[in-house]
Amino acid sequence: MTQRIAVIGLGSMGLGMAQSLQRAGFAVTGCDVSQAAVSRFVAAGGQGAATPADAARDAEIVVSVVVNAAQTESILFGESGAAETLAKGGAFISSATMDPEAARALAARLEATGRHYLDAPISGGAVRAAEGALTILASGSAAAFTKARGALEAMAANIYALGDKPGTGAAFKMINQLLAGVHIAVASEAMAFAAKQGLDLHKVYEVITKSAGNSWCFENRMQHVLDNDYAPRSAIDIFVKDLGIVQDMARAAKFPVPIASAALQMFLMSAAAGMGRDDDSSVARLYAQIAGIDLASARR
Fold first, then answer.
1. Structure pTM?
2. Per-position DSSP letters for 112-146, written without gaps between them
3. Which candidate in 147, 165, 173, 210 is catalytic?
């Protein structure tokens, strides 16, 4: 029989993941707070559901692709939550970025009902989600991995099994987000500084992407600056949240993270300037505003 999977959260990442599962032969039901998102998935051949409970009914696996721990808790245990209807012995794959302690608490609560919880944050962006080529940073019991393995392989090119305790995957993801946030902030700083020096930003991009100062974040995000395209692939507000989690974790561990703290302030300032829902490369626009420079005139 075809395995039934529910995907809850059909944004830029979740829609691609749901479609990757479809291509792999799973029967996929999608759910989202946006009816338009559900309609797009139905138009692509999927099934739609009005609530997480409806989506999870008769499903063996639920893939949750939402923003944070609060949304994950609501999907599981809120009104019409998926924990009510996910099959006993089924697996809940949580892709949200959250504090490891939150992941452990959610896992304990769900596993007490006879269902499995796989802490499985993702990395790779919307394009790789649509290609089924994500990186998944997973931790959980052997039984959770066994149940979820086929679905994970349909969605990811790289699956890292990082331990048998939920929360470890979340901790790995926060290390990635610390680095990504710092890289995006400093790439934006460098690009705006180059504009202040009167340099041609297209030539700056060409030189840096072939030099030691390059990073994946510079190469990916600064192309958005060159294109003057700040439609959100990953929004400023995401890094306000994620670097905020890094701050909370570091404070609890009494561990200094001064560079991550500086990056967080740049994302906060960008959000305060009205760019919270714009692409995270908008930090470059904030620098341009502060310095009184025109990025467009530097794109010769």
1. 0.93
2. TTT-EEEE--EESHHHHHHHT-EEEEEB--HHHHH
3. 173
